[in-house]
Amino acid sequence: MKAYSLFKKDIQSELRTRYAINALVMFILVTISVILFSIGSEKISEYLTGGLLWVVIFFSAMSGLSRAFVSEEERGTVMTLHLIASPNTVFTGKLLFNLILVFAMNIVIALLYSLIFDSFVLKNLSLFIVAFILGNIGIASSSTIIAAIIAKAGSKGTLYPVLSFPILLPLILTLLELTKFSIDGASIGESYVELTVLICYNVVILTASFLLFDFIWKD
Amino acid sequence: MVWKSILFLLMAFVIIAGISFPIVEHPALWYQFPIIPGLEEKAKIIFFHVPTSWLTVIAFLTSTIYSVQYLRKKDLDDDAKAYAAAQIGIIFCILATVTGSIWAKFNWGSFWNWDPRETSIFMLLLIYGAFFALRSAIEVEEKKASLSAVYSIIAFVTVPFFIFIMPRIMTGLHPGSANDTNAGPVVNFKMNSNMLLVFFLSLAAFTILFFWMWRLNYKSIIYKDKLTKKLV
Q1: Which residue does chain B place closest to A148, by CA atoms?
Q2: Structural domain boundaries enclosing B148
């Protein structure tokens, strides 16, 4: 329950300043428009739009998700959190916040994307939605633990994508494959292996994060 | 001293055997290797390229084991060991990438094909790179040690997807991929017993090489540390 109140506190302070939301929205707009400018009037293939979608999602995630822990360090509220909550609670709260943020951001991106790109047609929408949900959970959980490392490391901005990319790469490659499948219209049964890889990834990352967060948090 | 002489003998044998033993159509003598269609002389890369990537994984494993050890006991010596292993690891990771890439140019036609195994070694390079970037960003010793330990453990639990699962379930160019019809598990693909012997000796030699280099590197890190502390 404490985790939930921590999550509520994060949502409230976010709604007050709207720092992460504003940065994210602007970032999404900027990335999509850069892609649009570079495409021009060219007609691009379906597979390419599927790939570019995850490029936009990856970089937007990198721009906003480190806030969860960095903001605590900046405001100097880490000590208070140490006093009132156990590491697990803190991590759960932050994870919930990042999950909401990732889901909101990626739904906006996906909707915008399907409006803008005509060639982005998903023949099997349900497969894409399953992959999308699993992928979002994976992105949120691995970026939360990396954000915790970054917040303690001092140099906040540049290191975040550097550290996250290798960890997220298995996830992103599987998601790319699944997007390709859903563009082709493959059934969920046919992409069983990739979906299992996604589930395994999520379980592994979540378990590792909960086990290791103690060591990051208590320094 | 014993290990060093064993290493010398093994390495010398592997290098001589790997490079100079002839590849003939019908191997009759003990030192002749059989022809593998499509590879011919190029098959000899297996004696050097595979052990190099093997060493990379061992180094990564060692680094993770000592990271876990550090988190348990908070002994900075363990951190130095993990760091030393990672340093050896990245050198051999680069070597494996470069040798494989040059070989791919001659056998598969281009330096880089994004074959699943190439993706996985690229991924290892990125992880090592990120690990060193993280270490260089933190000043305080204890913080540096614990954060990089946590990072290397997280990286280690996601890497198996790449090194051990992906190359086997996806189609690719390396032996052991999903579309490789004439090969079973990686080891028994058309190597005869003398080739296997040289291959396993090479693996053993590279494993000893790793532990030797790792110890040396660990000692040099400790001495460097002592020297800087004396200067300050």
Answers
A1: B147
A2: 49-185+192-231
